Each structure stands twice: as C-alpha cells, then as structure tokens.
What does this fold into?
Amino acid sequence: MLQRPKASALCIFVAMTISLTGLTQPIQIQFVDQDNQPVEFAVVADTSVKVTPETVSKGASKGAGVMDQIDMQFSPMVIAIHKGEKVSFPNSDNIRHHVYSFSKAKRFETKLYANKPEAPVLFDEPGIVVLGCNIHDSMIGYIFVSAWQHFATSNKKGRVTLNSQKPPETLEYWHPWSLTPNQVNRYKVKQWPTDGPLMIQLMLNRPETEPVMKTFRRGFGSP
Amino acid sequence: MSMSLRNRIVLFFLSLLIVSTIATIGSVLLATNSSVKTQAQSKLVVGKNVFEQLLFERGSQLLNAATVLVADFGFKDAITSNDQATIESALINNQIRINADLMLLITLNGELISSDKKTTLDTALLKELLIVAQTQNGTSGIILVDHDIYQFVMLPVKAPVTLAWTVIATRIDEEFAQQLKALTNLDVVFKAQNIQNHSVIVSTIQNLSSNENYDDIGNQSINKILNDHNEDYLTLPVKLADSEFFQINAYLNTSLAKSYSLFYPLKIQIIAIASITLILSIISAFFIARKITKPIIKLANITKKISSGEYDEKIEDDHSSYETSKLSEHFNIMQKEIALREERLTFLAYNDSLTGVPNRSFLIKQLTDAINLKSNNELAIIRIYIDNFKETNDTFGYDIGDELLIAFAKVLISYTDDIKQVARINSAEFAVVFNGINENTAIEKIIHLQAILQHPLIVGGLKLKNHITMGLSFYPQQGNEAEQLLRRSEIALNHAKDLKLEYAIYEDGQDERHLRQIDLINDLKIALETNQLNLHYQAKVDLEQNRVTQVEALLRWTHEKYGFISPEEFIQLAERTGLMPKLTHWVLDQVFRQANDWKHKGLDITIAVNLSAYDLVSDFPDKIESLLNQQQLSPNDIMLEITESAVMNNPDMAIQVLYKLKKIGFALSIDDYGTGYSSLSQLKNMPIDELKIDKSFILNLENDKNDLAIVKSTIELAHNIGLNVVAEGVETHESFTILKRWGCNKIQGYYISRPIDAVKFESWLATYTIPQVTS
It folds into this structure.
C-alpha cells in the first residue's frame, strides 16, 4: 500500500556522505523542508525489523505513549508508538476535552476532565490516527502506530537517531503536514553517509490558522 | 370653384389649432413616456440592489446553518461510518434539520453521495467546485442541478482534518421568486441554461409565453422591452452564474403598462382640454369670419345689382368696423357717380348733340317700343330732307348751317308737341313719327307739315326759305321692325329725290331691289379681288377681208345667289359706287394679257374693249398707255368702244380724252349708235373710226321697213364722212345678206357666234367658215 509517488521522489534530495567508520557511527537522519529549514515531528522507521508482542510487552518504548492536552493543544502534536501499545491522555488543562478519532487505524472517543485521568487507549492497528477534540476544533494531534521495531520522531532540529543494529536499507517516513498526510512514504537508502546524518527533504503544507467561513462569504450574489 | 373667404379663415384657424394641439399632446405624451421609462429604470436599479442583498442574506443564512451542521460530531460520526445507508440517512436528517432542499456529500476522491439517490452531478463540475473550495476552504453560489436552480454552499467536513466535502443548497423556486417580488416590487425571472441548451425558468410572470423572449434580450441593456401578453416590460438582467456547464441569469422586470396607466388620467385631461379649446376656437373663428365676410357679401350683392343697372340701393352702415363703414360710404358715393355718368352717356347716346333732339338710335328704340307696346297701332314714319342745307352751308358757312338745323328742329318740336317724336338721323335729315295715321290719312298731314316747314326761318339775321323732300313708310303695312321702316322711308325719300317729287311713299319691292343692289355692290368688290368675273369674246367678221378680224370683250359675272348678272346692271352699280376705275383696270389687264397670248399664238385678232363714261377722265389715256407698254402691245391690237350716251354726258371732256386716245393710236368706235341724241355734226368733230349700229335696229331688220331705211341711210352717211360701220345683233342669214349687200364693214351677232370664253373661241375660230351670200 505504501507507494512512493513520483512527485515526492522528485522532491527528495539525498545528501550522500562517505562513512569511514560505519559501525561506530550512530544512525542519524536529518529532515528539512523545501526551504531547507529543520522539520520537527517527522516520524521515520526502520523496515528491517517488525514489532512483536513480546517486544511491546518488554516496554520497548517506555514513556512514549502519553498524549497530553496543554493550553487547548495536543502535546506533543505527534507521538509514535509500537502497534499494541496504549496511550494515555492525561489532560493538563483545567477544562474539559472530548478527544476523538475517526481514523481507520483507531476509532475512539474519550471525555477528559481536568485532573481526572481516563484509562489509556490501546492502538493495535498500524497506521496514522488523527486526534481531534469535539469541544475545541482547533486541537489536532497525531499518533503514528508503527508496525516496526525501530522508529523515532524528529526533534526541533529535525534530527532523528535510530537505535537499529545496522543501517537499514529501506526506511518509512511520514509527516502530518506533507501533501499526502494519509500516506506513509517508503524510502530505499542507496548508501548511508559516513560523515553525517542522512538528509531527507520534505514538501510541507503548513495549515492555515484563519477561520474557514470568512474566505468566501462575499461570493454570493454578485457575479 | 374657389373657396369662400369664410371657409378659408375657419380652415386656417382650424389647421393652426390642430397643429398646436397635436404638438401639445405629442410633447406631453413624449414627456410622460420618457418619465415612465426613467422611473422604471431607476426602479430596476434600486430593485437590483435589493435583489442582490436578499440573495446574499439568504446565502448567509444557508452558510450559517451549514457551518453549524458540518461541525456536528454526530454528523461527522455518521459520515465516517463507511456505511452508505447510514451516510444517506444522516444527510436526509440534517437536510431536514436546516430546511435545505438538497444535500450532497463528496468524498476527497470526488465520489458523490446524495440525500436523493437520483441526483446527478457532472464529475467535471464537481472537480471544478472542489478546486475552488479547496483553495478557499469552501465555496458558494448558484447552481443548476438536474432541473432545478439552487443556491448552495460547499463546505469541508473536518474531523479534525478534512474528511469529505458537503454541498448544501436551497432551491430557487417560484415561492422564493414571489418573496423577491414582494420585496423588490419587480417581476423576477430566473433562467438557467445548460450546455445542452436545456433551460429552466422560474418566473413570477403568469404564463410566461416562452423562453424566446428572454433569449432575445440576452444580457443586454436596461432598455430592452419584453413583450408578453401585450404588456411591455423593462428588463434588467443580472448574471448569477456563468460557467462552462451552465448559465444562470435573473431578469428583473417592471411592467411599463402599469407605469403608463398612472399617467392615463393626465392624458385624458390634456386631450379633453385640447378638444374643448379646439371646438371653442372653431366656433369663434366661424363667428369672426362671418363678421368679416358679411359686409363683403352684402357689397357683392349690391355690386351685382349695379352691374344690372340698379343704382338706388343704399348700403346701410352697420358700424361693424371702421373699414366696412368706410367701404360702405365710398360704395354709396360710387353708385351715385355711376348713375350720373350713365345718365349723361345715355343722353349722348340717344340725343343729337347739336339740336338736342333724339338721334337715330333713340328713334329706333322709340319705334321698337311703340311697335311692341301696341301691335294694333298705326304709325307713320316721315323722313324730312332739307334740300338746300348743303347750299346754305356752302354759301353762308357752317355756323349758319348749324343754326338752320337748330331752328328747323325747334319747328319740328313745336309742331309735334313731343320731342320724342322727332329725331335727327343724318346731317340734313330729320324724322318724325306720328301715331294713329295710315297711308290714307297721311297726305293731308304731310301737306300741312310741308307748308309749315317751308315757311321762311330767321337764322343769323338771314331769312332763309327751305325746300324739303319727304319719304314715308307706314306701320304695319310696310314693315314691322323699326330698322326696316326707317330704311323704307329712306328708299321712299331717295325715290322722291330722284324723281324730284315733293314726297314719296314707299312702294312694295323697292326695298328688295335696294337690298339686292347693296348685296351686289358688296359682292362686286369681292368678285374683283377673287376673280369671280370673267371675260367672254364675241367674234366680229370683216366682210371686206371675209374673215374674223376682231372680238368684243364682254364682262360676265355669275353671282352665287342671284346667278347671271347683266353687265348693264353691275356696271351701273360700279359707276355709282366708284368701283369703275378698278373694274376697268381689271378688264384692261385681262384683255391685254389675252391679246398678248393670241399674238404669241399667231392669231391676228384685235380685241375691242367697252369704256364707261366714268373712264373718260383726263388721266385715263396715260393709264391705258402704261398698261399697254407693260404687255408689249401696240395700240393696233386694241379697239376702244364708247357708248354714244357716255360721250354725250360730258361731251367736252369726252372729246378731249378721245383725242388723246386717238393720238396714242387706238382705234375708236361709237357703241350703241342710234340710241342717244348725238347728231352727225357732233360725230364729225370726234376722232372716231367706226360706228356701231345698235342691235335694236338690226334684230328685226329683214321685217321692219323703218329699220331697213335707217340702217341703209346710216351706213351711207357714215361711209360718206369716212367712218366704218359695224352691225351688232345679227342673228339671221337674211339680215347678214342685206348688210353685206349694203356694204356694212363688220358683222357681229349670234349668226356668227355667241360670246364665248377664250379657249372656246380659239377652237371655234379654227373651224369657222364665213357663210356665202348667194345672188
């Protein structure tokens, strides 16, 4: 299902570096956007090792399964978890939230009260779950449910470090503002760089913050 | 037929008023029409603003409702259920909830899910809408779906990212159109047309006849008029949607007829005012015209009377105007003047200016009146001629002559006691008419009158005794017309003068002869000019030479009315009327031509021409000589015959002329010898060559002893004094024989030949032989 569209292939620029000491070097990837600015919240996964129930139970990614609500925003905006893990929604605001998802990977809703944690929600299907709040339309959050053992989310500097045993041959990556936000992109690494991170450039479509209605109201009546 | 002045004036005012009325009504109509249009136009402009505002408000309401709807969690839940039935039922539910007419769901892939399963929408159209909606987070407008026009909004369904698109629409139906009409006060027509040219119309105009009316106007100007059920509309088109899939327009209409109807009372008022003005003006024009023309007609009637001789009708001044008063006054003066002048003219026309008695014209009028008045009356017309008037004039001068006439007239007036019975009809001629006198009783009166008139008159200190001659005619015995009676009295007078009588009474037949003579005198002039006269030639045989040596030229006139006129008669008339020189000239001219002609033909013939006593005047020889020379003839070719009486009339002058003629070389012959009183001693002194014995002695020669004796002795006597003798009127062989035996030189008469024309004469001469005399 995960096909790499031609358009995105054209947009990706891979900076190749020669690795002098391949094994000792951490596996790092740098995400930039079309303006060469670092991209946060990009999720990348090593497709060489699948996640198993055992590894999940060992708590391979401890602490990752928390999606807080701070200042009427999901925090962080994106989290990535293994398939079969639970995510808790602690609600750090002092108002109510009504978190829901109509995504295929997980449909659910839970009403969150201030300082009154609900039971964590189990995500047992890989895919992208879009979170919304029925009370606050502007709240949007994403949970990347990974089918793979090794994955990571880029930090503010756009840097990701994979904890894989060896540099993977193929990668999966995704970002909520990409032109195809419902698709996960697959990427084949020809040669890992030796003197720095693997560079992946993304085409992003930053969401508008302006309210919807005002843009075309005047359109009625006069041709 | 020319138009009367009155009609002309009325017509002029009428035309003027009609023109001005039409102009007034026309300008009012134009102004109202233009006002109606202007009002309608501004009404449309205002209406359009209201219309657009209403459409916008409706859209806004729809948008608000739709915005709330797409944010509904339950709605989102339902449409993400992936269950078609659930989705459709959710759409229906929400459609009802916000009172929309149509609700569609479009997936991000462009699949269409509808509340109404039958609804179809072109995929291309959907894509177009999606492109617009994605960039603007939604769109709105007017759309044609299936067979309905909708106002729609298209909004994303977000959960929280966009999951699908929804279209929510309300139908633009007649109910909505009626609402618009109620608010804009305009008739509203929506018209949508898709690419297949299928059109949908929503209208507030009842029974809108067809689409075509709107096709005609398209998106044109504000002034286009829509004809519908005989109503004119002013239409303003408003474009609502114009895409490659369909065109949707709204047309705002305002009925002009209704606007016009507002001005209807005004128009009626104006037309009524104009009509009343027109009628009043015609009536006043009629009266004014009558006032102007009335005196003119009156004057025209009086003028008519004046022309027929009535001058006594006074024109009453009706003081209608200064001009007509003036005209009337002058008219009256003119009438008086004309009457006076006519009186004077009449007097002059009917009166003799010298004596003051009536003139001939008045006499004729008087006579005519008298005849017509009393047909059984008896009248005597007496013409009185003063014989000695000319002599008095010559002796004592015209003044005395005039005084004589005046005195004479006074005598006549005092005698008759009535000036109207007297008239002066000629210089020395008066006429008196007596009533109740006939031919038998007249004589006594005439004798009495004559005695009075011959009584001496004292004129200019002179005592003059007058001698008068009178001619009489009587009515009714001798005519029943004034002119006729007057003429007959004149004939009687002339008769009396000729016979030197004291008086004469007209005799029957005199007038006819008189009239015939007048006719002949007139016609003779014409005959001379038109060659109605001709010459015949009678042969003369020379007994010594025993051949035809001479012809006598004889004038012939055949009158159209009276037939053959004897030369004696018409020559006598010509002599009396001074036509003789002309006639002689004509004859001589003809004769000389003939003589010339025969000379050229080799005929040795002398032509004898008769001369009248009137030809024997001193200048005649010169005239005849010049004529002779013109024709290059010698005097030997011509012989001149003069009657015995012509010579005896004025023997001294005649003999003088004859000598001149003789001197020129003409041979001279005495015609009709024996009928006059000439003596041989006189003949002896005349330069003549020949005697022509009158035919009265010859015609019966052989039977009359006296004639035989006279002729025999005449021949002997003539021969003795050296004259040749010609005998005319020879009709028998016996007389021919006797004359030849006695030595008569020439013979002329029917025995030889009748007078014949020149052509016949030539052929006659060619075959003629002289009769032989036996013993």
Remarks:
- The longest strand of chain B covers residues 547-559.
- The CA atoms of residues 44 and 236 of chain B lie 7 Å apart.
- Confidence is low (pLDDT under 50) at residues 215-223 of chain B.
- The interface with chain A takes residues 52-53, 55-56, 59-60, 63, 67, 71, 73, 76-77, 80, 136-141, 151, 155-156, 158-161, 163, 238-242 of chain B (CB under 8 Å).
